[in-house]
Write a structure and sequence with these properties.
The chain is built from two helices and 15 strands. It has helices at about 1-15, 80-90, and strands at about 20-25, 30-35, 50, 70, 95-100, 115-120, 130-135, 140, 145-150, 155-160, 165, 165-170, 175-180, 185-195, 195-205. It is globular.
């Protein structure tokens, strides 16, 4: 029986991604949130746990075994950026919209969905997104990037080429995102997708490492590849 319990999480991890689904919930009321200081049961130190004030409606097609708790892997929130936004939302009584996934490979706790993005304010229909600028224009994997524009509402994804990035929406005009850890080296289109469409912010250069910066310009159009 003990061996079976050890095998089940592995099977879920191996098979989960092909059946994973993403969704959006909210606006929600936050009851509490915390960073796990020490391993507790299935929790790893550094993971984030969020408890809502009331049960949320699980989006169609998603499988969340717990409808009041959400978690986030420490690797999904570099620098605790999303955690700080959630902390401020709870402190000032704001109701964020949360983007979640049931992908076992991205879940911090078996049976619970995980937060992948945060949007402050109530989600309302808007026109197609407009991404007018971003900074910096290049960086290493995991580096923070700020996008500026308009109609950043009901944001579904931010992608560097084909690699999906973690993000949170600061306002309808600003998004904070991070270069994906699985992003390839080179210059790729930085795209924002909402319920109303997709817009390209331009080319972003992903560096292999510090040495890749030598002789490379800050502008993505002039950046040297590898």
């Amino acid at each position: 029986m003990k061996n079976l319990l050890l095998v089940l999480p592995l099977v879920a991890a191996l098979c989960g991604s092909s059946h994973a689904a993403d969704g959006m919930i909210g606006p929600v009321d936050l009851a509490s949130l915390s960073v796990i200081a020490q391993p507790i049961g299935l929790h790893v130190a550094g993971n984030v746990e969020v408890r809502l004030a009331r049960n949320f409606a699980i989006p169609p097609g998603m499988s969340c075994g717990d409808s009041i708790h959400l978690t986030t892997l420490r690797s999904e929130d570099p620098g605790r950026a999303m955690f700080r936004v959630l902390e401020q939302a709870r402190k000032f009584g704001m109701q964020p919209v949360l983007y979640i996934t049931d992908d076992p490979l991205r879940n911090a706790y078996i049976g619970r969905c995980s937060i992948t993005g945060v949007q402050l304010g109530r989600a309302v229909p808007q026109g197609a997104p407009i991404c007018s600028s971003f900074t910096p224009h290049s960086g290493l994997r995991g580096a923070p990037v700020t996008l500026s524009g308009a109609n950043f509402v009901n944001v579904r994804s931010v992608k560097f080429g084909e690699s999906a990035a973690d993000f949170y929406v600061i306002s309808p005009a600003t998004i904070k995102t991070f270069v994906p850890e699985d992003a390839e080296v080179g210059t790729f289109s930085l795209d924002v997708t909402t319920d109303s469409g997709t817009d390209s912010c331009g080319g972003f250069h992903v560096y292999k490492g510090k040495g890749d910066r030598v002789g490379a310009a800050e502008s993505p159009s002039d950046a040297a590849l590898e």
